[in-house]
Amino acid sequence: MSSTSMSVDNPGGASSGASSSKMEAEYIEDVAAYIARFPKGTEEALQTMQSTYQQYKLLESRLTQSRQRLMMKVPDVERTLACVKKLVQRKDEGSDTHVDFELTDGIFAKAKVSAENAQKVFLWLGANVALEYTAEEAVELLTKNLETAKLNLDTNRKDALFVKDCITTTEVSMARVYNYDVQQRKQKAMETKE
Q1: Does domain 3-143+155-181 have CATH number 1.10.287?
Q2: Does the predicted model carry a pTM greater than 0.70?
Q3: Checking CA distances to 6, which of 17, 79, 87, 123 falls within 20 to 30 Å?
Q4: How does DSSP classify residue 40?
């Protein structure tokens, strides 16, 4: 049987933290030989391919959700990093910083941060947790988080393209198996008429 295969390791990308797994999409060139691998014939082959196809679609959905989260995270980290850098700059200049900060949705308050009080910042980690960092540590951490988020986004895009190719390959292979089965049935019907 002649076929070409593609595989992916860690289909969730660095962003998902998923364990490494191997997913293959097989283009079937010799349909008869492929179907011969299944004891129940075409029906079993199509069921197997449909199961694989559903796995790819689920993976594509997870990658899309992950990409959406990352696309929201990157600008948020960039804004936070810019704020902390501005605070460090003002601290180094010895000047006060005037800010408007959001208390809740659409409600803001004005604040003045003196240069002496700009030594430490609290970063929101999520899950109702915030940690105190020195301004310099915060810049370092946010820079690292931004680089990681961008890398994860890039990995996610590559994985999504790969999965899209696997979906297309699986769809084509399923169509070839189905069409082969239709041809075989027509041929058998013609032979029984003769």
Answers
A1: yes
A2: yes
A3: 17
A4: T
